[in-house]
Amino acid sequence: MVEQRQPRVADVEHARRIAAAVVDPEVPVLTIDDLGVLRDVRDEDGTIVVTLTPTYSGCPAIDQMRDDVLLALTAEGYRDVRVDFTLTPAWTTDWMSEAGKAKLEQYGIAPPTHRAGERSGPIPLSLGVKCPRCGSLRTREVSRFGSTACKSHFECLACLEPFDHFKVH
Amino acid sequence: MNAQLNDAELAEAAQPAEPAQPDTARPETARPETPHSEAAHPATPHSEAATAAPPAATPHRDAATVNAEYEAEAADAHGDVTVDELDLAAELSGVPSAKATADVAEYALRLGDDALILSQRLGWWISRAPELEEDMALGNIALDLLGHARSLLHYAGTASDRSEDDLAYWRDEHEFRCAWLFEQPNGDFAHTVARGLIAAIWMQELYTALTQSTDASLAAIAAKSVKEVAYHRDHFVQWTLRLAGGTDESRRRMLVGLTDLWPYTDELFRDDPLHDRLGGAAPRPSSLRAGFDEVWDAVLAEAEITVEEFTNPKIGQSSGGGRHGNHSTHLGPLLAEMQVLARRHPGATW
């Protein structure tokens, strides 16, 4: 079936699969597709153009992701590859896939608890965050700012383990 | 400042203001108190090597000459240093390949410099904050601000074919456009909280309004930034409440911090002819005041702080001047530290 398609379309589809499999260097169980960072893959006059969006403005992982996408595609034989960045629309955890959330929890990071639009008002109402190790809801936020910009730091009052929470953004 | 408690003790003393917290068994993380020294910034890993190098170059040699000399020196001194063209993300401004007009570039430069200088100030706290979590929080906030600075300076540079690094590292003091609030010293932890509170409330009002800009790049940068600044504001509000509602000492320090930083507030809201020319591309600074005051007053009310406790009619508000390149004495030393690595080793990467 694949060889019957127009070469250009087939290339983009293939390139998209390759790019989508690149993992987040900070949270290697998530692909950049799970994370919602991969925004677009297209063919621009024979050049494969991949568009990424940073999670947070200062996220240092974005440059690594760009390099990894370039390496993955060139390893597959693509000669002309470009990675663009876009800030708009601004990234949100609402774009994280359900599979990605499940993988996060299995990895020991509590996934976002709700959709970003539900947070409002000057004093954000926080939902209970479930401990990814023991499942208890008896947890508390130690710090809004965790090991990376996208995570907050929690501790579980039941099993006493600290854990990261991928914060709703 | 008459510091009797170090910042770790200050934070510990203010602990009772968090009634919702159960016993946290927080480890004692007191560190030697060095809040006033301008020690080497952790982001300049080769500064030891730089200070051990021969006397500084004369300021008028061009970058290529300096580069050649120090490339030779670096190759000699450090076998693993590579000097290469920086390959920074070229399109981190909102709209790829958009070019700023001269006026929009000047405006982006102001906001970019505010974010850059505050980021540099906050980075100093890493390894020195009152508790480990606060090291990470201030480091995260500094990183967000650095991201905003990169986007804004990249966009500003499109008007004059300069990169974000050209603007950050190769401008001198009088070419910076940050307001005086951001260049003020960190002081003790309460000073940093007071400055952070003023800055974050202002930035949230600013970026919220700027999302409506007729300039697509400014609007995109603002939409990205406002989500992050909301966390910063929340963080500094929490610390203000905690310090003001903690012990007598933590409250006293919070009031001193507010007293010292409040005079730099008005500069943020002053209109000048640039804003007339920008039209719909940027909100007039004065238009942000009402929104700022509403949040500010609400925070003070919750912290049970009255205006009289931190304002002195004899002091009033600073005339500032940062938007036109007139700076306080504090910016020069900050820039010297921030720029030394790039100027001594042009194009260095690690």
Automatic annotation (TrEMBL), chain A:
This is Ring-1,2-phenylacetyl-CoA epoxidase subunit PaaD. Coiled coil: none annotated. It comes from the Bacteria. InterPro entries: Fe-S_Maturation_MIP18, FSCA_dom_sf, MIP18-like, PaaD-like, Zn_ribbon_PaaD. Pfam families: FeS_assembly_P, Zn_ribbon_PaaD. Residues 21-84 form the MIP18 family-like domain. Gene3D superfamilies: Fe-S cluster assembly (FSCA). It comes from Agrococcus carbonis. Residues 128-167 form the PaaD zinc beta ribbon domain.
TrEMBL record, chain B:
One of its GO terms (cellular component) is cytosol. Residues 1-63 are annotated as: Disordered. Residues 11-22, 40-55 have a biased composition (Low complexity). Transmembrane segments: none annotated. Coiled coil: none annotated. InterPro entries: Aromatic_CoA_ox/epox, Ferritin-like, Ferritin-like_SF, PaaA_PaaC, PaaC. Residues 25-39 have a biased composition (Basic and acidic residues). GO terms for biological process: phenylacetate catabolic process. Gene3D superfamilies: 1.20.1260.10. This is Ring-1,2-phenylacetyl-CoA epoxidase subunit PaaC. It comes from Agrococcus carbonis.
